[in-house]
Design goal:
With about 525 residues, this protein is an alpha/beta fold. The chain has helices at about 10-15, 40, 95-105, 135-145, 150, 180-190, 285-305, 320-330, 360-365, 380-390, and strands spanning about 55-60, 80-85, 85-90, 120-125, 155-160, 195-200, 215-225, 225-230, 260-265, 270, 280, 400-410, 415-420, 430-435, 440, 455-460, 465-470, 480-485, 490-495, 505-510, 520-525. Strands 1, 2, 3, 4, 5, 6, 7, 8 and 9 form a 9-stranded mixed β-sheet that branches. The longest helix is centred in the middle third of the chain and has 24 residues, at about 285-305.
């Protein structure tokens, strides 16, 4: 195995080792101790990802039954399409157990070890052997997957990445300007797809494209007492965790921009290997697909709402920014005591130093929206369903306690969302704002597609801020209860207690124009009415 790819998260090693394990001995990552998705598979929800396309790009690809010998005795995975970069896959070529395990997290139909979205349509592309393949070929593969299913792919999984020492730029750093990173941010916008990216892990890891703005980087959790509630020790810690400055830009983003958005299970995950034997795998490689496939379940619900013409619902529900805001805002931070003041959260997540979110700089500092290790917290699919199903609410009327919106704001202006009912003293509010960096393709041959040799143009990130203010407040600065005002992130996130029962509103402010004078955004909120 090429050492440069050993990053694939001991996962590559572990997932290629057959470590027989009793599924019953390890609590599933899909149950209430994990991401709590199994109940959504059952009535009355019946969500399995039907008719929703998702994608997978990595070095190899999963074997397809009837096409590849490696899986001739195993029908657990049903794949919608397999490719080598942007061409059909050759039989028995680039088939890889790591890719098979990753796909299993998403779409396994095995009764004992189901995937998160067993009925979703998974399209998978192998970039191929890395010696002569690099970021241009990886971008080509990602674009090819984004264009499958007649261009309607809702999320794409990246359980792989590029080490900085393979980036052709002189003195390359994690500044968001690597070709693959620019490609991910361009494709997010142009193809409207949420990229779930495996977070960096281990020394000298695979940091590109974890310096993206428009995707969602995923760290991995391990079990304590059977519950996935601790950031695993092998995730790379953030800059504030005593790591020396020499790693800034090498293992972490330059300028202090946070990398991790969310945490999902990734330690000792029981999965089937291509030969049908049980295996357990570890790494961010196996956390990211929990997020990717969650999008398929939520989107099946969203399309169901559209088909039945439900009120407070629109095609905006398909926006990648909406998915990102919904997933981030519904994540578990601190276990609710049963009184609902902590929004019904089901676990307290702790970082590698055993500190919870209330001890983080993200909680204390309005300039920092995301914890360096935990992001906004741990993926909880049932809570994401509750957040999403609450519906879309416009700022032109008062809004309920829970909901989301997708809208635009003009430079130097703000949009106010007034909550219909007073908020309860001592209850927490969770609010997330998500928007895109603007990356454009320098389309030399004007075919509106990325071609090998073409480049991208980084037009930067407009600066938006987020506030919770007293409802009678007209002035932007007076009456602010909580705020999130990062200068560098493409997410703002508020998690704070309500100081006094009363009427409040949420304010989205377009603080500073860097590219276009109008910025699309998604907002998700979860509060407790008195």
């Amino acid at each position: 195995m090429n050492k440069k790819l050993s990053w694939i998260i001991w996962g590559f090693g572990a997932s290629c080792l057959s470590l027989p394990v009793l599924a019953s001995a390890l609590p599933s990552s899909l149950g209430t101790n994990g991401i709590d998705v199994l109940r959504l598979h059952q009535p009355p929800y019946n969500l399995l990802g039907r008719k929703i396309a998702i994608g997978q790009v990595e070095i190899g690809r999963p074997g397809m039954f009837g096409w590849d010998k490696a899986v001739s005795k195993n029908r657990a995975l049903s794949l919608a399409g397999v490719f080598l970069r942007n061409a059909p896959a050759k039989s028995n070529n680039s088939v890889d157990p790591h890719a098979y395990n990753v796909a299993g997290v998403m779409v396994s139909r095995d009764k004992g070890l189901p995937g998160v979205a067993p009925q979703a349509r998974l399209y998978s592309s192998a970039v191929g052997s890395t010696r002569n393949m690099g970021q241009p070929e990886e971008c080509l593969s990602a674009q090819h997957i984004a264009l499958q299913n007649t261009g309607d792919v809702r999320a794409i999984n990246f359980s792989f990445g590029e080490p900085l020492n393979r980036d052709p730029r002189p003195d390359a750093t994690l500044d968001g300007k690597a070709l693959l990173t620019l490609c991910v941010d361009w494709s997010s916008r142009v193809h409207n797809v949420l990229y779930a990216i495996a977070g960096n892990q281990g020394k000298g890891g695979i940091p590109i494209p974890t310096d993206n703005f428009n995707g969602l980087n995923v760290a991995f959790s391990s079990r304590r007492g059977g519950i996935f509630n601790k950031v695993d020790v092998s995730n790379l810690a953030g800059l504030n965790q005593g790591v020396s400055g020499r790693l800034a830009g090498k293992e972490f983003n330059v300028d202090g921009r946070r990398s991790i958005g969310i945490v999902a299970p990734g330690n000792n995950i029981p999965l089937l290997n291509p030969d049908g034997k049980l295996n357990k795998v570890t790494g961010t490689s196996f956390a990211a697909p929990h997020v990717t496939a969650t999008v398929a379940l939520l989107q099946e619900f969203g399309d169901r709402q559209l088909r039945s013409k439900q009120p407070n619902w629109s095609i905006d529900s398909r926006r990648h920014q909406v998915m990102k805001a919904v997933l981030l805002n519904s994540a578990d931070k601190i276990q609710d005591k049963g009184d609902g003041l902590l929004l019904g959260m089901t676990r307290t997540l702790i970082d590698k130093q055993n500190q919870d979110w209330l001890g983080s700089d993200a909680y204390k500092n309005p300039k920092i929206p995301l914890d360096s290790q935990m992001g906004t917290g741990h993926l909880n699919v049932f809570r994401a369903y509750q957040q999403f199903s609450a519906g879309q609410w416009l700022p032109t009327a008062t809004i309920p306690a829970v909901g989301w919106d997708y809208r635009q704001v003009d430079a130097s202006k703000s949009v106010d969302y007034t909550l219909a009912k007073p908020l309860k003293r001592g209850s927490f509010v969770s609010i997330t704002l998500s928007w895109d960096r603007l990356v454009e393709l320098k389309d030399t041959n004007k075919n509106q597609m990325y071609d090998l040799g073409e480049k991208f143009s980084d037009r930067g990130l407009n600066n938006l801020d987020l506030y919770l203010v007293k409802a009678d407040n007209k002035n932007a600065d007076a009456g602010t209860i909580c705020s999130s005002m990062s200068d560098v992130d493409s997410v703002e996130h508020i998690f704070c207690p309500v100081p006094a029962t009363g009427n409040y509103k949420i304010r989205v402010q377009f603080r500073q124009q860097v590219n276009e004078p109008t910025q699309a955004y998604s907002l998700a909120w979860w509060t407790v009415s008195n």
